[in-house]
Give the backbone structure.
Amino acid sequence: MNRRDFFAAAAAAGVTVSISHAQPDSSASLTARPAGKGRLKQSVCRWCYGGMPLDRLCELAASIGYRSVELLEPKDWPTVRAHGLDCAVAFSVPSNPIPKGFNRRDHHDSIIKELETRLPLVKEAGIPNQIVFSGNRAGLDDREGRKACAEGLRRITPLAEQLGVTIVMELLNSRVDHGDYMCDRTEWGAALVDEVASDRFRLLYDIYHMQIMEGDVIRTIQRHGKAIGHYHTAGNPGRNEIDDSQELNYSAIAKAIADSGYTGYLGQEFVPRKDPAASLRHAFETCAV
């Protein structure tokens, strides 16, 4: 299940977001490690561990050295704060699900109205980033879609600049998980960043998604690092652990991100097939360059 299907199913059922995964081994050590080990601040994406109580996930993440649990709705922000953690990225506003985004002008008013309410709350909670989506093509030309995205984003970036919150549009693959999604190439996204021309609009570069679409991950990071405001991980194929069962070399990728001068968070967004505690610890160590 991808993130879009997961949240859509939860919304349709009218239930609190959750997903069933193996629970952590009760014998797994929660001995604290020094927070911030390595040059990158690391984060955990909540939706991948929805079957685990948020308090437990925060406790586990903090014990390993993670500094954030992300993609949270406002009701969950106090919980991570109580555990001494940040929320690196606020979850999307209801009017901006993945298929429905800034590439259609008739979506702008509803999305912007909700962002005008959300961004001050994000600022107050000390959250650095708010995620947004381009929406699907649905027959729309990419150039026209980018122009519409830029128009809409330029309506909200002045508030983001005033508050010091960065709006990040996620790059997603349109081959496997999010068919027809428009912001599916780094070049398209980087051109959008240039067109919006605000220090408070950047890309969320999802390594898993961009490996599927274009590969050449390290060179892309080196070339377009200034357009990137946040990173996500996951193993490919499968979106599972970042281990030797998949094709990406995450130690080298993490080093390239750190070498670029990036100071934000690296969000672990893999869905664990094995013991979640062991997988989170291994991912942390892999990226602690």
Remarks:
- The domain at 36-287 is CATH 3.20.20.150 (TIM Barrel).
- The longest helix spans residues 142-163.
- The two ends are 30 Å apart (CA to CA).
